[in-house]
Structure formats: C-alpha cells, structure tokens
Amino acid sequence: MHYIAGRKGESEMQKWMEDRCNLDIDIIALPGWSDATSKISLLIGDETQRPDIIWWWNMEADYTKWVDAGLLVDVSPYMKKYTNMVDYYNSVDPGVMFYASGDNGIYRIPGDVAEPACETLWIRKDWLDNLGLAVPTTLDELDELKEIHGKQVEDYQKYLEEYNK
Predict the structure, then answer these.
(1) Are 8 and 26 members of one domain?
(2) Residues with Cβ < 8 Å from 100, sequence gap 6 or more?
(3) pTM for this one?
(4) Using an 8 Å Cβ cutoff, are 113 and 89 in contact?
(5) HSE on the CB side for 98, CA within 13 Å?
(6) Is residue 82 domain-shared with residue 111, that is, in the same domain?
(7) What's the number of CA atoms in the CB half-sphere (13 Å) around residue 130?
C-alpha cells in the first residue's frame, strides 16, 4: 500500500485490517507526485520489493506492460466470490468495474469512485476542541481555520527540520 509523501506509523484502519485478515501491512511512502511513477516502476521491476497491492494513477503504458509480463493477478475469479464488491461498484457506475485487458482479465479495481464520502473535507473535532474553536459554519470561518492549520503545519515543519539536524 502506498501513500504520497508518506504516512508515519500505523493507523487504526491498518491495525484493524491486520488483525481481522491476518495480514502484515508494510506501507511504502512515495516521495511525492513528481517522482511517484518512477518509484512505482522501480518497485514493480524489483521482485524483492514488488508490492502485493498498489494504488497508482496515470500509468496506463506501464500497467499494460505489467499485465503482459504476468506481474499482475487477474482478479475476476475473486469477483464471483466477493459479489458485494461488484454490487457496490455496479450501484455507482455499472461500467466502472469491467476495465478488462486484451485477454479479458481484470487486473485492477477502481479506487476513485464518485460518492458522497469521496474527496470530502473532514475536520477533526478534537483538534478544534483543543484550540478552543467552534465548528466553522461559514466560508469566512473555514478560511480562518485554514490559516490556523497552515500556521500549525508550518511550525511543525520547522520543528522537524530542527529535530532532524
């Protein structure tokens, strides 16, 4: 599993997935948008570092090469077993799941689905509470909150720079 610019430490979701599914998840942090495709290509090319699951974008030519080289698994047989996943995607857009390759295999599952929870702004209530702030109800209040958050991020980045010297 990959995250742009990195995720530090285990999340609650990661722990839950590891416990529930008997998995050991190692997250490989990508360097950022500009170098991510190069890093992914290098990981796929090295069988000692090749990830089991990957989230990627805008790599159609690479993806086709990976399928042709036999580096990816056809997930269509699993779809028969896990029909709730297929039903979900069909309820959103019936055409989205069936992105088959030349051999009619399905080697990828869509990641970005237009649904109410997709790309939504979330604000942590405990963070607001710690700052003594109310939940914003206007765009002006949200803009003020953005400035406060930006200042905190800036301060934290300065702290990390000093700490890592």
Answers:
(1) yes
(2) 76, 106
(3) 0.52
(4) yes
(5) 6
(6) yes
(7) 8
CA distance 62 to 80: 27
Tokens 């490989």: give the residue. Answer: 28
Beta strands in the chain (DSSP E): 2-4, 28-30
Domain match, 87 and 36 both: no
Backbone angles phi, psi at 2, to 5 degrees: -125, 145
What lies within 8 Å, CB to CB, of 109 at 6+ separation is: 75, 85, 97
CB atoms within 10 A of CB 66: 20
Give the separation between CA 108 and CA 115, rounded to whole angstroms.
19
Token look-up 């360097």 returns 31
For the stretch 12-53, pLDDT in tens is 878 888 898 888 888 777 767 777 788 888 888 888 888 888
